[in-house]
Amino acid sequence: MRTATIKGHVTSTIKHASFKGRGLLIAVPDSGDVAPQVVIDTLGAGLGDRVIISSDGAEARKIVGDKSSPARWCVLGIIDPERKPAP
Q1: Domain total in the chain
Q2: Within a domain: 35
Q3: Phi-psi region of 13 (alpha: psi -120 to 50; beta: other; left: phi over 0)
């Protein structure tokens, strides 16, 4: 697992059946040691959101409900923005 920032949406005219109805996003890991990844999102993350992503393919396949899915990366959580304390 790692933290990442959502930088864009993925549009596809043809995709695996297990991806239908699921959001595909571009996530840039905060660590910088991994290239941007296409992630499956079922939580509703938006542009600029910080998220927790996982490369556990088994978990991604559980999320889409298809053991033969090519899914690997998925969004596991959306990180709440930091709030400044009231003066």
Answers
A1: 1
A2: yes
A3: alpha
Collect the ranges in the chain with pLDDT lower than 50.
none
**Rounded Cα gap, residues 85 and 58, in angstroms:** 40
pTM above threshold 0.90: no
Q: How many CB atoms lie within 10 A of CB 15?
A: 13
pLDDT at 51: 97
Contact 25, 41 (CB under 8 A): yes
Q: Residue 87 is encoded by which pair of tokens?
A: 């003066």
**3 state SS of 38:** strand
CATH number of domain containing 57: 2.40.50.220
User: Which run of H or E residues covers position 58?
Assistant: helix 57-64
> Which stretch of DSSP H or E encloses residue 11?
none
Domain membership of residue 25 as a residue range: 2-78
